[in-house]
Amino acid sequence: MSGSEATVRQLPRALTPFRHAGYRKLAVALVLNTFAGGVWVVALVWEVIRIDGGPGALSAVTTASALGVVLAALLGGVVADRVPQKLILLGVGAAELLGVTLVMTLSLLELTQLWHLVVIGFGAGVGMAFYYPAYSAWLPALVDEADLMAVNGFEGMVRPTIGQAVGPGVAGVVVGIASSGAAMGVAAGAHLLGLVMLAMVPLTAVRKAAPVEGAVPTTALGEMREGFVYMVRTPWLLATLLFAAVMVLAIMGPLEVLVPFLIKDKLGGGPGDHAMVLAAFGVGGALGSLAMASVQMPRRYLTVMNLMWGVGCLPFIVMGLATQVWMIVVAALVLGVLFSAPMVIWGTLLQRRVPPHLLGRAASLDFFISLSLMPVSMAIAGPVSEVVGLRTTFYVAGVVPVAAAVIAVVAARLPADELAHPLCDQPLKPQVDGSASEASTASL
User: Fold this and answer.
1) For 4, left (φ over 0), alpha (ψ -120 to 50), or beta?
2) Of these four, 21, 211, 277, 386, which has the most CB atoms within 10 Å of its CB?
């Protein structure tokens, strides 16, 4: 056994991807950009407040960002499958640096207007729509297939800890000591360092399907259609995305909109209690991601993933029944663990079972479908709670995803599919459209 093999075996599973020099640099860039994003979120809120904007003004900025994501998501997947992903990430990073620097300058000169923030927020959303598919499609070219679980687990740990805790915490301190413009400067500095690290990652070729002799080059719309057809013809992908859409519709409104009112109106809590709930959710997410990154892909990966998501929503019932704030904190911790752990499986699943030349488009469809119903959930959560009651709305959020998960597993015959295409013990060659369905049928 060589020295390098011995080193790999001595490393905990969650750390094995860091033996790749290129991935180490990408990981540092991810941490820096996630930190910058966390600082930006808080600094943006206080910049809106500084220019005398209220909830409506902040809503306009956040809506513009969400609109940018939704409108560009499908195109982002096509580009990720056509252009070297490093170049896409560099372009997005440069645009983010420019936008944050512009807002910083306007703020420090006291020239900021709401429309500036709306336009830049929209641009940030568009950038995110290009970033996510490119990042997901690039990872399999940088690390071994066996390391993808650990890679996705690390990402799942970074986002809640750095993006939702450290970044916002630093931003709050800087805003309190100096100003929102100064916090924007911190974000710009982190973006710049992230760009430097990203530039050091080796450039890899786009992984494409073998060319067919006499084939006519496809257009962007044609490639979007190809990705959509692949999704429809691949039962495990379609079933999971439809289930995810139902889950997002059921839970995001209660989680983002109703939890503060539950704490304030039913339990007599305040902003500090709400902060503890959010922190618990973030800590749970980090723990769940780290735990999943440290183990092998489950043999029943499709069933485990979907049922874990479904069962993971049961803490909403505890929230509805809660008589003390600590009960909501504990429920949020469990929710974070069971929500983030399956995300590690999902990211790895896409990277191992989707054909390489379609991975960017599959990731963008995931992004698009997951986000499309999030604004709807937030919009209807308040009216629904007024009709059926606040606590009843939480009960619904806890029960509906469980039923949807069971339906997805049974209707798409996921147990047969996962046995026909094991991921835990051997590498799996990507399938062509419809092959998952055919394999599932054959196995029965």
Assistant:
1) alpha
2) 277
- Residue labelled with tokens 């910058």: 36
The residue to which tokens 């990073």 are assigned? 93
Check for a shared fold between 11-199 and 220-443: yes
- What is the DSSP secondary structure assignment for residue 204, as one 8-state letter? -
Domain coordinates of the chain in residue numbers?
11-199, 220-443
- The 8-class DSSP code of residue 263 comes to I
pLDDT in tens, 335-376: 999 999 999 999 889 888 988 888 888 888 887 877 777 777
Answer whether 0.70 is exceeded by the pTM.
Answer: yes
Are the C-beta atoms of 349 and 304 separated by less than 8 Å?
A: no
Q: What is the pLDDT of residues 235-247, one digit of tens each?
A: 999 999 999 999 9
Asked whether 50 and 112 are in contact (CB, 8 A), the reply is yes
- Whether the Cβ atoms of residue 65 and residue 117 lie closer than 8 Å to each other: no
Residues 6 or more apart in contact with residue 211 via CB below 8 angstroms: none
Alpha helices in 81-199 (DSSP H): 85-108, 114-142, 148-158, 167-177, 180-199
**AA identity, residue 186:** V
> CATH for 11-199?
1.20.1250.20
Cα 276 from chain centre: 22
Strand locations in 249-301, DSSP E?
none
Q: How far apart are CA 226 and CA 240, in angstroms?
A: 19
Instruction: Tell me how far apart the alpha carbons of residues 9 and 91 are, in angstroms, rounded to a whole number.
Output: 37
Nearest to 415 by CA among 298, 294, 310: 298
Residues lower than pLDDT 70 in the chain? 1-11, 14, 55, 208-218, 271, 424-444
Both tokens of residue 69? Answer: 């994501």
Radius of gyration of the chain (CA): 22
What pLDDT, on the 0 to 100 scale, is given for residue 437? 34
**Euclidean distance between CA atoms 35 and 174, whole angstroms:** 14
271-293 helix and 148-158 helix, angle to the nearest 10 degrees: 170
CATH architecture of 220-443: Up-down Bundle (1.20)
Separation CA 349–CA 179 (nearest Å):
43
User: Which contacts of 380-383 are long-range, i.e. CB under 8 A and separated by 24 or more positions?
Assistant: 380/253, 381/253, 381/254, 381/256, 381/257, 381/258, 382/253, 382/257, 382/258
Longest alpha-carbon distance in the chain: 70
